[in-house]
Amino acid sequence: MAHAKSKPASLLIKGGHVIDPANKIDAVMDVLLRDGGVAEVAAPNKIRASADEKFDARGLIVAPGLIDLHVHLREPGQAYPNTTPVIDSQEWVNWLLQPERGAVVNVFPVAAATHASKGAVLTDFRGLQRAGAVAVTDDGRPILDNDIMRECLRLSGELSIPVVQHAEDTRLTENSPMNDGPTSFRLGLRGWNVSAEAGIVDRDVQLAQQIPNARLHVAHLSAADSLKAVRRGKRNRARVTCEVTPHHFTLSDEAVGDYDTNCKMNPPLRSKPDIESLVAALADGTVDAIATDHAPHASHEKDVEFERAAFGITGLETALGLAITKLHREHHIPLIRIVELFTSGPARVFELRGRGSLARGSHADVTIFDPNKRWTFDVSKSRSLSRNSPFDGRQLTGKVMATIVGGRVVYREE
Amino acid sequence: MNKVARGSLLGIEQLEAAEILKILQFARRMNLQKPRPLLRGKRVILLFYEPSTRTRSSFEIAAKSMGAMTTLVQSSGSSIEKGESLLDTGYTLRAVGADMIVIRHPLAGAPNLMAQHLDIPIVNAGDGMHEHPSQALLDAYTILKHKKTLKGLRVAIVGDIFHSRVARSACHLLTKFGAKITLCGPPEFVPEVTATLALGLTVTRMEEALRGADVITLLRVQKERLAGTKLRLEDYIAHYQMTTQRLKLAKRDAIVMHPGPIIRGLELTADVADGPQSVIVDEVRNGVPTRMAILARAGGRRI
Question: How far apart are CA A278 and CA A284, in angstroms?
Answer without folding.
Answer: 10
